[in-house]
Structures are given as structure tokens and as C-alpha cells.
Amino acid sequence: MTKLSQVSLVFDGKPVIDQLSYSFPDKGIFAIMGPSGCGKTSLLRLLAGLEQPSTGNVMRSHHRVAVAFQEPRLLPWLNCEENLKLVLSEVENMPKTVSYWLEALELTEAAKQLPNTLSGGMQQRLSLARALAFGGDLLLLDEPFSALDRPLKERIAPRIKAVAQQALVILVTHDREEAELLSATVLNCIGTPLRALEKDE
């Protein structure tokens, strides 16, 4: 279980998250939805351990965390294949290969290309492939489909759903259709600053 207890986060004197409490189970897919600026990305960063709460506690039973950020954050001097190899070198027993993940995210033909030669959608897919390949028991995705068209989303969604059988997946999205594609539990952000997460009825 990953649990937030009375968590607040303040940036430059401005509250972003205010006394938020919520418990996530060990597995499943949750889609966090809400208006821009309500604290969704900040919440992901707290869950990833990239930010520390100003007050309150984040307790996480998940030990291996993978993140796909809004910006792809690829290593520009490495090609697609090498960006994935870097991650897979840290995965014990490497159950799935670089070629598997390139094919899964439809990047096989771009294997030798550098990130700056890829379209925005391809960069996003490589970032997602890297997070999925890294694996772990907590996968955090910030707008993972924003640069992809509907057919691509439909083809990639099963890869994420498969991961959720053994891990907790939390994504931020503005698109309800994306949540539906992933059969995700939708959590609506309440308040600005963010003070509660409310399940869709």
C-alpha cells in the first residue's frame, strides 16, 4: 500500500497540496484527473520521492519506482536502443529484451535513431518503453499518451494493463477516454490547492 497522510506541499510560499490523505492498493490502475495547476504532477513527484512533503507523510510499500515524465527526458547522445539498454542493465534477469520493448511501442525501425531525430510522439513512446522496461512495483505516468493518436493509444494500452497485474500504475491525464482505455479507476482532484482525491461514481 502507498499512503499519503495529511500531506501538504508548498512552493515559494504557495500551497500546491493541502492536507491530502489517500491510500492506494498494491496493484491496479488509477487515473488522476483535474484542471491544470491543481497539483497532479506535484502529487506524482511526491509519490516518486522526488519531492518531500512540507508537512505530513508519504508511506510507500512499493520499492522499485518507474516514472515517465511529461517531457521524455531521454539521453540525447544515446539512440533508442541504447536508451533502453541503459535501463535494462539494471533489471535482474532481464526477462524482456530491448527488441521486445522496441516492438511493443512500435519503435523497431527507429532503433538506431537519436532522440532529436524522432517526432514528439516517438519520443513519448520511447520514454514510456523505458519506464515499462525498468519495471518495478510502482509505475507513475504523467500524461503518457498526450502526443499519440487514438489507434496508437489503443495498441499500447494493453501493455500498461499487463504491468498493472503485478504493480500499481498511477497516471495523470486530462482525457477520460485514456482512463477508459486502461480500465482505470478515476480519481478527481478536489480543490486548488489539491486537498482530496474523489473516486468517480
Could you describe the 3D structure shown?
The protein is an alpha/beta fold. The chain contains 6 helices and 9 strands. It has a 6-stranded mixed β-sheet, sandwiched between helices. The protein has a 3-stranded antiparallel β-sheet with strand order 2-1-4, covered by helices on one side. Helix 2 (80-88) packs across helix 3 (98-104), helix 2 packs parallel to helix 4 and helix 3 packs across helix 4. The longest helix has 15 residues, at 120-134. It starts with a strand and ends with a strand. The mean pLDDT is 93.
Summary keywords:
single chain, 201 residues, 6-stranded mixed sheet
Topology as a string of helices (H) and strands (E): EEEHEEHHHEHEHEE
SS field, number of helical segments: 6
How many angstroms does the end-to-end distance come to?
22 Å
Structural classification: alpha/beta
Share of helical residues: 25-40%
The biggest beta sheet reads: 6 strands, mixed
Walk across the major sheet and give the strand order: 5-6-7-3-8-9
Mean pLDDT: 93
What is the radius of gyration?
17 Å
Please state roughly what percent of the residues sit in beta strands, choosing from under 5%, 5-15%, 15-25%, 25-35%, 35-45% or over 45%: 25-35%
pLDDT under 50 segments (min length 5)? none
Overall shape: it is globular
Number of strands: 9
